[in-house]
């Protein structure tokens, strides 16, 4: 929540990021373990920042 002005914005961003990572990983993986998704968060945030 610290980077956002409201909880709603934080939740919307987290949901989008989660979906973005899941879509990217599903291109090469049939099942995406939660730990793999978590490991991708910093890389996805960097990509989404650009």
UniProtKB/TrEMBL annotation:
Residues 1-48 form the YjeF C-terminal domain. It comes from the Bacteria. GO terms for molecular function: hydro-lyase activity; kinase activity. The keyword Transmembrane helix does not apply. InterPro entries: CARKD. Keywords: Kinase, Transferase. This is Carbohydrate kinase.
């Amino acid at each position: 929540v610290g980077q956002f002005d409201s909880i709603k914005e934080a939740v919307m961003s987290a949901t989008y990021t989660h979906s973005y990572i899941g879509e990217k990983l599903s291109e090469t993986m049939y099942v995406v373990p939660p730990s793999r998704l978590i490991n991708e968060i910093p890389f996805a945030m960097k990509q989404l920042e650009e």
